[in-house]
Amino acid sequence: MSGDESHMSAKLAGQDVSIAYGDRRIVENLDLLVPERRFTALVGPNGSGKSTILRTFAGLMAPSCGSIFLDGRSIATLGTREMARRVGVLLQGPVAPEGLTVRDLVQQGRYPHRSLFGRWSEADQAACDEALMLTGMTTLADTPLDTLSGGQRQRAWIAMTLAQQGEVLLLDEPTTYLDLAHQVELMDLITVLVRDHRKTVVAVLHDLNQAARYAEHIVLLKGGTISAAGRPSDVISQEAIADVFGVRSIVIRDPVAGTPLCIPL
């Protein structure tokens, strides 16, 4: 990590984290800092532990050892409701009941803020309206989810997580199965959420060039350990790509974004 980034305040942090499925260790002695109000991309080959790490940082899996911290406090001490208020999570392939509209789905994001018999409040409505507006889904609010395109459905699910009004958004492969136009649309949305709405976003991404163009902080993972972490310009190199992905490449400057652009050989 570069000198400037080492001074960023960490919103989420993992200390000496190991994660296992039964007797099989997936992640070993991981130390990971997620800078506050930045877009962090987790990148690496299949089986490198990206999604497992995301789930663990979301509190959906418990590490076999080590600790995860949110604003310096162990998430093991936070209740499920408090975590849901502060951290929005979108996993791969979410499924909603048949016939559910976009508005119905987004309203589910308010459950962490409501008591069992609490009435729908102006604050709840305002949070849902803002989430629909941010994701460009206002005009589709009363449309059934199962009639939407893949990109529209993905934006509806992100709207639900935004309705939670958490400071952190964790996304597992959010661009998978989306066409190029919808991928760009979604990545632009993430940029707006970080830049204008002060969100901390962590996303698992498969496209290295996409990560380099949009993310401010990249974590390269290999075999459940961190190979490199920092700014794209500090992390993306021919040597790093050969080590992590086993691919020969050249890295040039993206003529549009000025970020590293990897061209496999």
Automatic annotation (TrEMBL):
Key word Transport present: yes
Membrane-topology descriptor: Peripheral membrane protein
The ABC transporter domain is annotated at 12-248
What does the record give under GO molecular function?
Answer: ATP binding
List locations, semicolon-separated: Cell membrane
Q: Which InterPro entries match?
A: AAA+_ATPase, ABC_transporter-like_ATP-bd, ABC_transporter-like_CS, P-loop_NTPase, Siderophore_ABC-ATPase
Which Gene3D superfamilies does the annotation name? P-loop containing nucleotide triphosphate hydrolases
The residue ranges crossing the membrane are none
Q: What SUPFAM superfamilies does this protein map onto? A: P-loop containing nucleoside triphosphate hydrolases (SSF52540)
Where mainly found?
membrane
Q: What does the UniProt keyword field contain? A: ATP-binding, Cell membrane, Ion transport, Iron, Iron transport, Membrane, Nucleotide-binding, Transport
Q: Family per UniProt?
A: Belongs to the ABC transporter superfamily.
Q: Which PANTHER family match?
A: IRON(3+)-HYDROXAMATE IMPORT ATP-BINDING PROTEIN FHUC
Its protein name is Iron-enterobactin transporter ATP-binding protein
